[in-house]
Amino acid sequence: MKKILFILLCPSFIFAQDGAFRYFVSFTNKANTTFSIDIPEEYLSEKTITKRLKFSIPIDSTDLPINKQYVDVLMSAGLIIENKSKWFNGVVVSTFDSLLVQTLNHQFIDTIISFGSWQNSKKIDKKWKLDYSITDYADAYNQLEMLGGDKMHAKGYLGSGMTIAVIDAGFYKVNELEVFADIQNQIVATYDFVDGNNNVYDDHTHGMMVLSTMGAKQRGKMIGTAPDANYLLLRSEDVFSENLIEEYMWVCAAEYADSAGADIINSSLGYTTFDDALQNHIYADMDGKVAPISIGAGMAYSKGIIVVNSAGNSGNSNWHYIGAPADNYDVISVGAVDENEEFASFSSYGPNADGSIKPNIVAQGKNTVVATSNNEVGTGNGTSFSSPITAGMVACLWGANIDKKPSEIKDAIYKSADKYLNPDDQFGYGIPDYLVAHNLLNTGFNIEIDLPVNLLIAYKVFTIEGKLILEGQTVKHNINDRITFETPKTAGVYIINLFVDDYEVSEKFIVLE
Question: Is this model's pTM higher than 0.85 or not?
């Protein structure tokens, strides 16, 4: 029998609403599936398939839905299927019988993880704690202008054609509030992975405020960073408890986003410790490869989705560091500054446990302008807000450079930031300028070459006749980085020389009309 029973014994917590026992059951394979890799339109959207083809991202077995026969067997055994994960090849199930799972001896079961049992005692919380102050567009303007977003908007880059999946804790009254009235047709789908329905508008205000920093569209009151983008509103978080099962629900939401054609995921969520200490992560786990949510975030990136995640608000706590999935190398992890570009003390520190730069960048997360549930605009604090401000700007940048790969978009953002040559564990690469990133994507020369990391690289650009026309410095921070340089404005053939200590290399490149 290929089953590992890993039971996490835990007391009652405030998570689900019925006191049921919940588990994640993973399967050994996807044998006898009725779906085929050769017919992806049966389980992936047309937009997703087009993106995969454009960027040469293979459609593989992880894209196939899980085996329905296995699901049917578990249902026949008396388990309720709550969520399905094709990436993790398993299901989240529940039962009131605490002994039922021990009777499962099917060969197709690989692993069973228990999340315990909860009794619901949640109280309806309809307001976020804010220092309310009525603002207009001018107040929201600062968090846009700080990133060069005003210039991107002036060029008409408002996120049109891009789809942002917002994975959060609920989107209270988004279907009613005035700041969202003009984007109702841009909300293309909703799903609540906690309650198992399509209504995400009756739970928590957190996701509503997060969405407002991107999608608010009421002139004279508030304009978000990506007012013309499309949105998927997905709830995976129950704010009234902290349990490992929420990481699995996040993965299910990310899979949904992928299948529905999302380009970007904003996740203003993070996980470190839980109500049951046996489920806790430790800092050594924060390498992007241990926490289920971090593994899922890496999967999403491998499918062509840019994942933007809040760094966390643990800067002043004993934990201090980023959480999951901000720890994943491929995730754009966003820390917080205030309106004066000063570091917000609550913002979590890097690096990740592997020593990679984290957070990657920062945006305004202190005194951030957000929508409130009483149809006004107020201010709030947290990397929960610097992350979606960034996700909206990523949508503007990628929408303006639709043929660029996710890695190229990320690379340009990092290189545009004000601390790119000298990153640290508070700001990461610093505050990006998305117009500079846009220009890099359109005028920069990218070179992929075996050069040392974390050293200053000098470069000189010569005409083919040997005349020096450009010179400067850059840094290759990570082994997978490409190096971007300013290119000559005149068409022709050029030589670039790179210098690191005693090491020198030359490359020829062509600038077209």
Answer: no
